Amino acid sequence: MALYLLLGFSAGLPFYMFSTVLTLRLQAHGVALAVLGFFAWVQLLPTFKFLWAPLLDRFDVPGFGRFWGKRRGWILLAQLGIFTAMVAMALTASDASLAVTALFAVLLAFWTTTLEIAADAWRIELAPTAEAQGPLAAANLWGYRTAMVAAGSGALLIADQPEWSWTGAYLAIAAAAFLPFPILALGRPAQGHGGGRGTALVTGLIASVAILLAATAVTAAVGWALLAVAAGVGVTAQTNVLTPVLVLAMLPFVAMAAGLPWIVRLGPGAPARRSAAVGPYVDFFWRYAFGALLLLAFVSVYRMGDVLALNLSKPMIKGLGYSLSQIGRADSVVALVSSMVGVGLGGWMAAKWPMSLALAVGAVFAALGNFGFVWLAHQPTGEGLLYVATAADQFGNGMAGAVFVVYLSLLVNPRYPGAQYAFLSGFAFLLPRLLSGAGGSLVERIGYDNFFLISGAVSLAAIPFLPLVARVQARADDGH
């Protein structure tokens, strides 16, 4: 539990720095609301983590893996990536070029996601049952949410000081994010591994520099191509992207529905099921057959309300007249305590209650947290009222998140923990994050009140799925 508290802390620190904090930073530099919404698409990267998750199951990081093992080796590399990307964001904090800001934000999201893939795979290997998963998931989320609060609150309080501003905020969080690296590096070797610690560390650092440079070059090239395509088709801050985004979000469901009849008939020796690249994903659809579509529809809806609210809640609060320091104070002790209580209750519920009941209660409290922003908008500006709305949001988010992590973990085949959990947790946020990118444009049309009423209602929309998903059972193993 102590280990997963630390790993959760490592992954949680950078998250707000490429989401909520970045949104406020861009707003302070006069970036249009619609463009703020577009930056929410940086958070799409974790959705596609299944594309590189099999690499983390199959390969070791040179040097690091020889001494610390596969999982810790990738975690060490990811922490170096997080640190360098955040320092780069600090050095470009003027946002003079939004393309450069987006480049380093994407790199920060990529390495944060890589850290989560490795940590999630290790957690599922260590704790394959609901009873064991509950405490580990709670510890992981306690660390994660503690770090998110520390980063969100600390960064805003630092940024509000003229002598520090946004550069100081990002440098401070980068330094904090690097602290777990020496702790893990001083840890004992993985079982069956050994050799010289110093040699492994030096070799790993050299390999990490090469990998980080290659990742930066590839990201820059892909980003340049995407911006060129967007400019070529005339996408601007005034473009209504909601309709094409909805169409795009439906394509994965259509593709999966088309391929399922073929997948369910595959025998144990079929190349698609034995493939290292696609086998883990084919296995999920083979095990759950047509029930897989229902499961994926449910997980896509369950956290949608929280995701939609994430990027635009802070700009709304700032627009109500609250300062960065007031928002930062609300995101400190108030958010931390309420989030940790929510996570603890959610982890306990997932371990002790029927899963459908735990999921339903989590959805209700997540919806209440979103409705709290509507309530706040119609109150006189007061820091105490901001604390109430923040506490409601963090409590509901924490409770629903803890239950959801355990639920997704139980859907995974223990043979493919990293790849299948990456696929499920990534797919769960694909539709919400696609829609979140159009959130700025939507708010410009319907206003903040209606936006947060919709986001809360979407959280409740997951509840009618529960009797149906409870009936979905995995097929028996056929010897593959």
UniProtKB/TrEMBL annotation:
The chain crosses the membrane at residues 6-24, 31-53, 73-91, 98-122, 166-185, 205-229, 241-264, 284-312, 333-351, 357-377, 384-409, 421-443, 450-470. This is Permease. It is found in: Membrane. Keywords: Membrane, Transmembrane, Transmembrane helix, Transport. It is a multi-pass membrane protein. It comes from the Bacteria. InterPro entries: AmpG_permease/AT-1 (IPR004752), MFS_trans_sf (IPR036259). It comes from Sphingomonas aracearum. GO terms for cellular component: membrane.
